[in-house]
């Protein structure tokens, strides 16, 4: 079985396996042979065949991959098509059936399904029909995937490959990268953008200059182990995206010093996540992760296609269109990305939706709206639609939300009244003074009457009293006060809600509400300098909501990571699960401890199982 895979997909392994070890700059580095990459590819295929109980790749394609069309296996189908497996008829039929019975609301998802049909050699009109309604409709990713389809020779009335390219170039950030939001480039998004632009590198100086800047961005952020991290967390997928991108540019990461750090190249960066069974984990020492495995798979295939002089990963061999994609010259041999380092033919790599590390700094990709509610109640200047979406800035609560918030307030107030007590500080100070007096008497009786002993005792007692006065030790009952914080200099009002719709009904935990609403949209006054973390803390204290965080707003750069809310923690529902926050429907690039709020802002804390990629579907319903 393995020999068949390598014969069809990796025919030139023996030629490249004999390549000599070439030192790069001053770093000691012996590059991987293509045969070693073949083994990584074959290990993934063997693992998947064993996992699904298939005796051959053809059986896998006709069985599990076809059954998972539209839900879980699309990137395996596409990658296998680029390995020479042209009979994807079962997958094509299943995907068309899926699209016929499901309303796909996500523009990016529609484009990815169109790519799947392209890979299957389909002549379905769906591929061209969805372009006008999808390109640019869901941020930068919908421009990127739209360009992939146009690179495959398809057309639509409203957009051309050139116009889409121009739009993507206009989104490049000052540091040379691209991102879903914010002012700083993101590794995965930048790599995916490069993959789409790579076939058009020679079209204009604007494209080549932008791509060169992006390559520098990616090079500068590579870690010493050869890999990458996303949102502060090292992971396999980010490195896989970069390998796919540089392979698309004809850059061989084994020889180019820009992508070798401390003797480690991109292949080393991905291989460190390989498990003994051939699959890949999302994080070091983690378990099998499907997303990490498929992205490692197609990144290695993208690398192999580059070494063989084949077309880019997402300029598809099996596409039905007879028109050659503009700017996508196969085997052009141009040295793309800049003049540094060795490079080969120009390839363009594909990518799946980003699977980054568990949320760090609480940032992610999706735009979410408030959940559904019935009735319409408006306070302040905002209005609440029947679907729960805020239509203007201000404070607006549905009747159901208002009822739920009132219940939370009542519960917290009852808790406070039941356990209220006087401040502990006077009693603590009396204890310190009394203890000091007793110790002084003992010293006097023992004859150790040196004035230094009494001075030291006095200093120690004063220090203890200072600690008592400067700290605020509160019981849980006192912390969860049931009363909002009094603010003397109010500059405005924000609303905040906390939801876990993505896991509602998936657990019998008492901490997961049936409707997914932990805190309905609730108004909070803000003072100058108040951050998202400040309001979350206030909500926790007011409504008795448990919050667990790492770091603090007083630490360097205000780095706070929210690991748990309402006893629902990161990783509870998979390697990619955790809490994220949105402000006004957008995920900021700043940490919640440093995002300063303005009057009218709308904060949403949302639980995601797929680093944000599952939020669109939940909140668009």
Automatic annotation (TrEMBL):
Region annotation (Disordered) ranges: 320-403
Residue spans of biased composition, Low complexity class: 332-344, 359-403
One Pfam family it belongs to: DUF4430
Compositional bias (Polar residues): 345-354
Gene3D superfamilies, A to Z: 1.50.10.20, 2.170.130.30
Membrane recorded as keyword: yes
Bilayer-spanning residue ranges: 427-447, 454-471
Keywords, comma-separated and alphabetical: Membrane, Signal, Transmembrane, Transmembrane helix
Residue ranges the record marks as coiled coil: none
Name the record gives this protein: Uncharacterized protein DUF4430
């Amino acid at each position: 079985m393995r020999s068949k895979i390598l014969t069809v997909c990796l025919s030139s392994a023996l030629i490249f396996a004999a390549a000599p070890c070439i030192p790069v700059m001053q770093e000691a580095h012996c590059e991987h042979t293509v045969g070693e990459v073949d083994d990584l590819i074959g290990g993934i295929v063997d693992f998947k065949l064993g996992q699904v109980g298939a005796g051959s790749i053809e059986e896998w394609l006709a069985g599990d991959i076809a059954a998972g069309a539209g839900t879980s296996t699309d990137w395996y189908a596409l990658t296998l098509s680029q390995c020479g497996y042209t009979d994807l008829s079962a997958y094509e039929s299943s995907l068309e059936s899926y699209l016929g019975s499901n309303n796909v609301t996500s523009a990016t998802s529609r484009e990815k399904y169109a790519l799947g049909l392209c890979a299957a050699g389909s002549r379905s009109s769906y591929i061209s029909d969805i372009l006008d309604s999808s390109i640019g409709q869901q941020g930068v990713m919908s421009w990127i995937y739209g360009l992939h389809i146009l690179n495959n020779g398809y057309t639509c009335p409203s957009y051309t490959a050139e116009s889409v390219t121009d739009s993507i170039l206009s989104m490049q950030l000052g540091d040379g990268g691209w991102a879903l939001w914010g002012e700083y480039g993101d590794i995965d998004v930048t790599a995916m953008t490069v993959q789409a632009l790579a076939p058009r590198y020679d079209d204009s100086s604007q494209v080549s200059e932008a791509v060169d800047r992006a390559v520098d961005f990616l090079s500068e952020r590579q870690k010493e182990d050869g890999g990458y991290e996303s949102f502060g967390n090292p992971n396999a997928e980010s490195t896989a995206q970069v390998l796919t991108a540089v392979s698309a540019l004809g850059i061989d990461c084994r020889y180019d010093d820009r992508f070798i750090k401390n003797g480690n190249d991109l292949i080393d960066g991905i291989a460190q996540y390989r498990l003994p069974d051939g699959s890949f984990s999302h994080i070091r020492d983690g378990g099998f992760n499907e997303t990490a495995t498929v992205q490692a798979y197609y990144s290695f295939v993208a690398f192999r296609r580059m070494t063989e002089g084949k077309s880019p990963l997402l300029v598809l061999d099996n596409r039905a269109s007879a028109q050659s994609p503009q700017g996508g010259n196969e085997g052009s041999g141009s040295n793309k990305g800049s003049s540094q380092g060795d490079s080969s033919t120009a390839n363009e790599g594909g990518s799946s939706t980003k699977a980054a590390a568990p949320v760090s700094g609480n940032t992610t990709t999706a735009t979410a709206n408030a959940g559904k509610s019935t009735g319409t109640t408006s306070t302040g200047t905002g209005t609440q639609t029947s679907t729960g979406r805020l239509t203007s800035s201000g404070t607006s609560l549905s009747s159901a939300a208002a009822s739920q918030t009132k219940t939370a307030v009542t519960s917290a107030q009852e808790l406070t009244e039941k356990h209220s007590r006087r401040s502990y500080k006077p009693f603590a100070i009396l204890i310190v003074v009394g203890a000091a007096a007793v110790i002084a008497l003992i010293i006097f009786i023992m004859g150790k009457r040196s004035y230094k002993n009494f001075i030291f005792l006095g200093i120690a007692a004063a220090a203890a009293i200072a600690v008592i006065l400067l700290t605020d030790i509160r019981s849980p009952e006192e912390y969860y006060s049931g009363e909002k914080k009094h603010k003397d200099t109010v500059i405005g009002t924000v609303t905040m809600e906390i939801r876990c719709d993505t896991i509602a009904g998936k657990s019998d935990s008492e901490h997961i509400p049936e409707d997914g609403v932990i805190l309905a949209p609730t108004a909070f006054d803000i003072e100058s300098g108040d951050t998202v973390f400040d309001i979350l803390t206030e909500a926790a204290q007011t409504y008795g909501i448990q919050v667990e965080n790492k770091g603090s707003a007083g630490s360097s750069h205000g780095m706070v990571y929210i690991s748990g809310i309402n006893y629902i923690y990161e990783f509870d529902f998979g390697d990619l699960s955790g809490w994220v926050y949105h402000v006004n429907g957008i995920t900021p690039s700043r940490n919640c401890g440093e995002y300063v709020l303005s009057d009218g802002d709308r904060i949403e804390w949302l639980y995601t199982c797929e680093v944000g990629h599952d939020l669109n579907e939940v909140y668009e319903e």
